[in-house]
Specification:
The structure is a homodimer.
Chain A (H helix, E strand, L loop, with lengths): L5 E5 L5 H10 L5 E5 L11 H18 L3 E4 L2 H14 L5 E2 L2 H11 L4 E6 L1 H6 L1 H9 L4 E6 L1 H9 L7 H16 L4 E5 L7 H7 L5 E4 L1 H11 L13 E4 L3 H12 L8 E3 L7
């Protein structure tokens, strides 16, 4: 069991930011990443549909053999953790929302926390619940920053289009919540916007995302498994668009991805 | 046969602009519209995946009974017409690219035609082929305007974000092709940007989309079928997110959509 890879599942390429943090935190581990690029984005879909897709993806990774499943997509984390845990009762299943909430609570002085996320994650209320579970007096407000997903995939994370977009979403957040002391990036597509958001927010506002705290949570969860070092290469699976996955994904992983590293997999065959 | 509805298939809600034109052109017909909202957008997916999805959607509409299939999505039209015609050999199957190409050739004086479309439609080269088939000396250049899809769904079709985005895509087109005399909107999500594009383009540049010419092509194709008037209500199917389909779709159909008008359908059960 110890020598099996850690499974990482995302709707597409955004979860590569979490994979990057996992590799840094757990350099001796092997990883098997699955991006459901044939059906992305999840952020505009209903919770039931996202849950069904997550079960198919989890099933595929379990069939290939993993020792732990990381749901590296905020929308999927908000919609599918109970179903995944019920379907795979002996497998540790970790999402990114509890770690993101924990990072927010650690960073926040006054408990005034803003969340930028997808439409589906905002609708789920998952961050509000997770943050208030850790700090009941926190004031949490969420805004759907739908356009950030497309902007990140286009690579437009600063400049004349991204700046007014970010200003508008932060304005919506301010109208809703006043000044926040901590901003949570509740979607794995959003870390590339940190420099821009940093330039638009007050200097004392913390910006946190789930990647680092998720990696820490995974390390703690796996502490009981000793691992033979010297892992093999990371393996990447995608349900569609290998060329695009490699090209756009490199921005999220932080290094080039060769098309030969990515295997295409069909989830609709999995029931 | 004459009394069966006309089937209209799109990746989501953009095809409602085509449905609107069809209703105007063919007021005595009944329509059955299917939006594959569970798997949209198609524009970033590979041709093989889009073809598979289109066959499932076409199969569902054929099973329910239609006399003609309109593929109201440019990406699906570019990727799936041969497969759909092979799968349903007795059914007239019409896409939006040939009508769009025809509209462009009619509008163009000098044959300098620019196309804004999705990544997948641009990659397919379908507009270039269709336009040159009608006018071999035409100079056709295409630019992927990926962000327009997300902007249209967000409802940001003018203002401080849409304007620099449109300016950038038109700039890419100009760098590629110089001044064009006709701009084709090669994605059904793009008609809401017409006022903005109009304001940025020279006054003598024509802007065309496929909706009206597709409706004309369907009318011509069905001329042999006489139809008993007094159609029933239009029926709408979506594979996910009824509430969102109704809310965002109203912008494309041009009138409100009641959630009760939209039926959810599961295409993954169709093989």
């Amino acid at each position: 069991l110890a020598d099996l890879p850690i499974g990482v599942f995302d709707s597409g390429i955004g979860g590569l930011t979490v994979l990057r943090a996992l590799e840094r935190e757990l350099p001796d581990e092997e990883f098997l990443y699955l991006g459901d690029t044939a059906r992305l984005p999840y952020g505009t879909k209903t919770a039931q549909t996202v849950e069904r897709y997550a079960l198919q993806a989890g099933g595929e990774l379990v069939r290939r053999g993993i020792k732990c499943l990381v749901v590296a997509c905020n929308t999927a984390s908000s919609a599918s953790l109970p179903a995944l845990r019920a379907a795979f009762p002996t497998l540790p299943v970790l999402g990114v929302i509890d770690p993101g909430a924990s990072a927010a609570v650690q960073a926040s002085r006054a408990g005034r926390i803003g969340v930028l996320a997808t439409e589906a994650t905002v609708r789920s209320g998952a961050y509000e619940r997770a943050i208030r579970g850790l700090r009941p007096d926190a004031r949490v407000s969420s805004v759907a920053a739908s356009l950030f997903v497309a902007l990140a995939e286009e690579g437009w994370t600063e400049g004349e289009v991204a700046t007014p977009t970010a200003r508008r979403y932060l304005g919506d957040l301010k109208a809703l919540a006043g000044d926040v002391d901590t901003l949570v990036l509740g979607c794995t597509h959003f870390p590339p916007f940190v420099p821009l958001l940093r330039s638009l927010l007050p200097a004392d506002c913390a910006i946190v995302d789930s990647a680092a705290t998720t990696a820490t949570a995974v390390r703690q969860c796996l502490a009981d498994y000793t691992r033979t070092p010297a892992p093999g290469p990371m393996r990447l699976l995608a349900t569609d668009g290998i060329e695009r996955f490699a090209r756009v994904g490199a921005r999220f992983l932080g290094r080039p991805i060769g098309e030969a590293q990515v295997e295409r997999v069909d989830l609709t065959a999995v029931v």
